[in-house]
Amino acid sequence: MRPDQASLAGDSAVTLYVHIPFCCRRCAYCGTFRVAEREPDFDPFLRAVAREFALRREESPAALARAPAAVYVGGGMPSLFDPKRLGALLAILREGAPWSAEAEVTLEVHPGSLDRDTAPALREAGFNRLHVRVQSFRNAELETLDRGYTAERAREAVLSAREAGFRAISLDLRYGIPGQTLDTWTTTLKEAIALGCEHVVCNQTAGREENLHDRLLRGHFPESALDEHLLAEYQAAARRLGEAGYEHYEVQSFARAGWASLYARAAWQRGTCHGFGPGAHSFEDGVRWRNAADLGAYLARLLEAGRQPPRERYRLSAENAAQEEIFLGLRQAAGLRWAAVARHLGTAPLAGLERKARLLSAQGFLEPIEGGVRLLPQAWFVAGSVVREMIRALEDRAA
Ligand code: SF4
Prior knowledge:
A hairpin with a 2-residue loop joins strand 9 (247-250) and strand 10. The chain has a 9-stranded mixed sheet with strand order 9-10-8-7-6-5-4-1-11, with helices on both faces. A 3-stranded antiparallel sheet has the order 12-13-14, with no helix packed on it. It contains 15 helices and 17 strands. The chain starts with 13 loop residues before the first strand and ends with a helix. By secondary structure, it is an alpha/beta fold. It is globular, with a radius of gyration of 21 Å. It has helices spanning 42-59, 61-64, 83-93, 118-125, 139-145, 151-163, 182-194, 212-220, 223-243, 262-268, 295-304, 318-330, 338-345, 350-362, 383-398, and strands spanning 14-20, 22-23, 35-36, 70-75, 104-109, 129-135, 168-175, 199-204, 247-250, 253-255, 272-276, 281-284, 287-291, 311-315, 336-337, 366-369, 372-375. Bound molecules: iron/sulfur cluster. Iron/sulfur cluster binds next to loops.
């Protein structure tokens, strides 16, 4: 059993992220920065990350002298690389502060690259948590998504992780897939529960206009019927996973007791995060920055010029920081604390915010908690709209 996660996440936590952009698929819904290569050359990438990490330690010595609570290697498709190379990547990050045995070290995995050979090798490499991007346990839906594996293969991937001794297995599932019905979605949920995974993330695909998948889906439903369909799927997930003992701890995340994602929670609590690799995001001391999503520029700047990769940095204003507190607080079951807003803007805006919260509570969206407010379960599906209302109340005060 892990120690109390709350003691690891939060303001004081440092997390590390590496974005490995290589990927050999072209999923219709993908919005991630990726570079399509079947056999990418990992060695220059590894050398560039090592260089970036060394430069960052000079730039942020205090943060990177602290032991990370969580490390996350995502992509792209990081599991394209053999476990030894991924172990070499972790060794680079370990050159910072030594990690405790409780640190959560996660690898994002494509089910097609997880089997009885790779799973033990990934444990050996130093990972203790896998986020398996299953999406669906229905073959027709996997074909629609062009994922390149079958439901049977996805099951085997999860089972091989368990056999290899992974104690923390997280599944990425997707609802709103064109052709998916409430019944087929429920089948996928039941499979995830039967496999005994500790953590489940339910993503909704619809919503981005430019997304091919979204256009396909909207072709299947008139607008209002689509919303009802997505709501029914979302509610089915909350009900099924809740009945099976999962805590719905964030809008789209569910965990068995003690297995919430430390990495994600630290991000939602605005902890310090250092990201490496092209397209990676970072946050420290009120400054957010993102490395340019450009692999060529990333490699050239680090390996040829020995300099930081191109990146966009911006310091959050007090107003931006308070907006983030509202957005991130309300998406979690723990809710928004007024003190979090006051930390950035003082107590002046609280009267307007509390007034708006009382209105939204009377309408059945929010409920008061000690020193703050949180979404009612029936309002989680429309969390975005509630957040917008609350942020508007903050802006009205500034107008
Ligand atoms: S496997 Fe992941 S990164 Fe690659 S195209 Fe699909 S969603 Fe995007």
